Batch of 2 targets.
Target 1
Amino acid sequence: MKDQTIAIHAGFKSDSATKAVSVPIYQTVAYEFDSAQHGADLFNLEVEGNIYTRIMNPTTAVLEERCAALEEGIAGLGLSAGSAAVNYSILNIAEQGSNIVTVPLLYGGTYTLFRHMLPRQGIEVRFAEDDSAEAMAKHIDDKTAAVFCESIGNPAGNIVDIEALADMAHAHDVPLIVDNTVATPALIKPINWGADIVVNSLTKYMGGHGNSLGGVIVDAGEFPWAKHPKKFHMLNEPEESYHGVVYTEALGAAAYIGRVRTVALRNTGSAISPMNAFLILQGMQTLPLRMERHCDNAVAVANYLNDHPHVEWVKFAGLPDSPYYDLAQKYTGGKPSALMTFGIKGGFDAGVKFYDALNMFLRLVNIGDTKSLAAHPASTTHRQLSESELESAGVTPDMIRLCIGIEHIDDIIADLDQALTASQTG
Ligand SMILES: Cc1ncc(COP(=O)(O)O)c(C=O)c1O
């Protein structure tokens, strides 16, 4: 099936109990056991069924199956937020003494997790100098548990050569984890380029309407965990916290996703609410359609800004002068999502004037909404940073980040046009 069909049908036809054709919201915490034996069989992973919503839920199960189908993986795990998905994707295979190797350009929350939080748990995070396979390879050693990247970086909009990173990681017997939030599987399917694990913030384009937090981890089911019993001993030795199960023996190709559910999620609880799973499923039905419009509008806006006399520079991988243009062609057919940054003539002050003059664009810190969104990092999110800190964070005083929505392109351009004029008035 094609994405447009998968986004509507995968994982659900009608409810087995009521024949309802809309995915029911199973707003329950627990599920009854038929007998003591049935309960034991469920806990032993010997029969399929539900135990407790922190671990699984039938509404969330549809979301997981649909995400896995779109990403072309074998199984998914729904979570409370994209941040939880990133965290668990690492914790499932890394521990004190392990390291992971990451690209340097990352979403801010992931950067903080990697720079400050994982190291305090004894997991070293090695930031490569750039996102090339050569730069990443230099940091890998026998304690490396994973290589991490974002398919399209937030906020830089850089495109990573997933195929090259996957080949390099596999040559070192290490899995590649890709955060696919900005691209979504409608634009890039990292698994088809060799990724082993894909994480997504469903809060963004996947849900698409800015109303619900959610995250997902999808397992390609391809990485040979059993071939590396020492490095990935968590998947290959009896799991003490789960009555001695050996995941690679009990679940085969689904060992990784099985363990992340029954160890990380079960014991630390970043579960998605059934209501949020429902709302995200509702939004996901139009994902391929929305992404088409997001991308078309973004290309039109990038070209408009590029030609505008009040604009100093535009960074968008869909423009021919972008260093990521060729990768954008390879991975997205020249439609690299709808996130871009530009520099306004007149620096910080003009940036503030532009920002305040916006009428339709929303001033906030989010991406992937149907609505067009704008951020001026230097006067808001990054306001407390010094000039040199701003520079190392890749934020300039004149920089505006736009995330283009699916409104009519004429209205989007009209709002930008009047705000650009206002930015230059005394
Ligand atoms: C690339 C990327 N990954 C992960 C996240 C975290 O997602 P959430 O806000 O759902 O926790 C974000 C949030 O902006 C993001 O942009």
Target 2
Amino acid sequence: MSNVSGSSSCASNVRERGRGKVVGVPKRCWCGEVIVAKNSKLETNPCRRYFRCGYATAKKLMNDDHCFKWVDEALLDEVESLTLHIAKLQIEMEIERKMKMELEKELF
Ligand SMILES: [Zn+2]
């Protein structure tokens, strides 16, 4: 048994607590508050846009579990889900095209 412990550097990411990770652009925080887009003032990420729970913004909350998501990451999610959606549509179109060809073969 290899029980590796003590090196969990990404522990801060394990705070989802079943509220569900938002995929794509968040519409509303789990608390019911609307999402606002803000500019980051962090030195590590200057001027990077992010989505944030309106309540948490108003209260200037830090390290809470209200909605927070970088805009670029959210948009990347959107693009990925759109790509998947398009791929699915293409498969469906291909199936329909084949079915149509089969039908035409039977008719003519
Ligand atoms: Zn919230």
